[in-house]
């Protein structure tokens, strides 16, 4: 998806890790990341565990040197100009690097010091971050005493201290309960509105990508297998599903079936359905037909009208909108839900706390 104002331009980024253990084959974590990301957008990298999402982010943030390919971030090359990239981005990783004992405000002030901010400016940024993430009530508490959701908000506040125009969040909500996730998302969206930031995040939660991201990159086995808005992905790769049950109210069941089937088949074909829409399945009180079409909300009323006009009684009608899981299923033959089963450790409802990576940490992490 080419854009005119790309803040990220990646071409053929690839990362291969040596096998873990003797005789183990190398792991191709990212095969080919080729993508342009528009300034000011909110993009989600969606994929199962091990798909290569974190590795992609870590290359773009200069934490990992790519095995091949190239990318510019904020106009700077990730390999030859990593310091210029780091100076313009924030990164909230999955691993915890924050002090558990520091109080929230002190932690944020330390972060400001790391970035070389003068005291007055530091205080101003810290106050703003506390305000943006609604951390006022816990600003005097030690990080270790906070809930998982609060801690994650502190992580994001830490990421805001250098006032980056581009913020990377690696699985910001993993492990949080649904309410904390919703609350965290409110804050993420608020940040975007407030600062006009570009946000790139990874998630394996389908609903999050669906609801909040403007653009979803579906990643599987190190490759981007789909890239569009959630709505377009669902329309193009899954389609709506209409289920209509027609009453079997005639002695001549075959006639009724044939008449209704013909109408349904014709409307389905006109609406662009390609499956075998004319085959009905007998139920206890009628015959059920299922068709997959685009814009099911528009097709359904017409279907009902025509069936009614032809003397058929419709007992039930349902419109099922596809989910991103249907998209993933259509693309891979697997369910993302199944792939992620057990991924969230219920024992760690606090989630993996993390902290933005400082320059020295980044330098140390480069491989
Ligand atoms: N340092 C490493 N050494 C060897 N293999 C690695 C390393 N880091 C990641 N991998 C492997 O690369 C693949 C991609 O991992 P990555 O962490 O990028 O996936 P992910 O999509 O972010 O998954 P998750 O949702 O679990 O974080 C996996 O097979 C993983 O085991």
From TrEMBL:
<keyword id="KW-0067">ATP-binding</keyword>
<dbReference type="InterPro" id="IPR027417">
    <property type="entry name" value="P-loop_NTPase"/>
</dbReference>
<feature type="compositionally biased region" description="Polar residues">
    <location>
        <begin position="347"/>
        <end position="367"/>
    </location>
</feature>
<dbReference type="InterPro" id="IPR003593">
    <property type="entry name" value="AAA+_ATPase"/>
</dbReference>
<dbReference type="InterPro" id="IPR003439">
    <property type="entry name" value="ABC_transporter-like_ATP-bd"/>
</dbReference>
<dbReference type="Pfam" id="PF00005">
    <property type="entry name" value="ABC_tran"/>
</dbReference>
<dbReference type="InterPro" id="IPR017871">
    <property type="entry name" value="ABC_transporter-like_CS"/>
</dbReference>
<feature type="region of interest" description="Disordered">
    <location>
        <begin position="337"/>
        <end position="367"/>
    </location>
</feature>
<dbReference type="GO" id="GO:0005524">
    <property type="term" value="F:ATP binding"/>
</dbReference>
<dbReference type="GO" id="GO:0016887">
    <property type="term" value="F:ATP hydrolysis activity"/>
</dbReference>
<protein>
    <submittedName>
        <fullName>ABC-2 type transport system ATP-binding protein</fullName>
    </submittedName>
</protein>
<feature type="domain" description="ABC transporter">
    <location>
        <begin position="8"/>
        <end position="246"/>
    </location>
</feature>
<keyword id="KW-0547">Nucleotide-binding</keyword>
